[in-house]
Design a protein that fits this description.
- There is one protein chain.
- With 163 residues, the chain is mainly α.
- Helices cover 72% and strands 0% of the residues.
- It has one domain.
- The protein has 5 helices and no strands.
- The longest helix has 33 residues.
- The relative contact order is 0.16.
């Protein structure tokens, strides 16, 4: 029982650690953001853009981390190992859908909070980071840190673990 507990804790720490590797640099060094003085006072400055980006990215990453924890809990204790593969995939895909919805909400919040497109701000780049970071981290954490009985249920996991 002790080995199973240690394995569970290790897997959960590894999965959560992947998110920490993104959260820490996202918020580190924010004191050094230059303030851009624009001729249009209603246009957001660089600090506003970065703050909006940090908050919206954190929302997506937070939802993605929560979905990973839910997957970890369901895969480890709630979904019986003999359930059909379709049950496992449905749960995993539904949680991924929640991450996509969070990215869409973050994208809309970003555009609404900044108003008109400020100089040098690419909405497509920000949206790509919202979608990419949330989806990629959920997928990576699910593949690398799922409980043993669910490790091969995630699409593509067999390719990663057998390589």
């Amino acid at each position: 029982m002790k080995n199973r507990f240690n394995s569970i804790v290790t897997e959960l720490v590894i999965g959560t650690g992947l998110y920490a590797l993104v959260f820490i640099p996202l918020w580190a060094g924010t004191d050094y953001i230059p303030t851009v003085i624009d001729s249009n006072p209603s246009s957001p400055n660089a600090a506003d853009i970065v703050q909006s980006f940090q908050i919206n990215t954190s929302i997506v990453l937070g939802v993605s981390l929560l979905c990973f924890w839910i997957w970890f809990w369901l895969a480890g204790w709630e979904i019986h190992p003999t359930k059909p593969q379709g049950t496992w995939l449905l749960v995993w895909w539904l949680l991924l859908f929640v991450v996509v919805i969070a990215a869409i909400i973050a994208m809309v919040r970003s555009f609404l909070s900044l108003g008109e497109n400020p100089d040098g701000f690419s909405g497509f780049t920000a949206a790509s980071i919202y979608f990419g970071s949330g989806i990629f981290l959920y997928y990576l954490a699910s593949i690398l840190s799922s409980p043993l009985r669910a490790r091969y249920r995630v699409p593509g996991a067999k390719l990663i673990h057998h390589s």
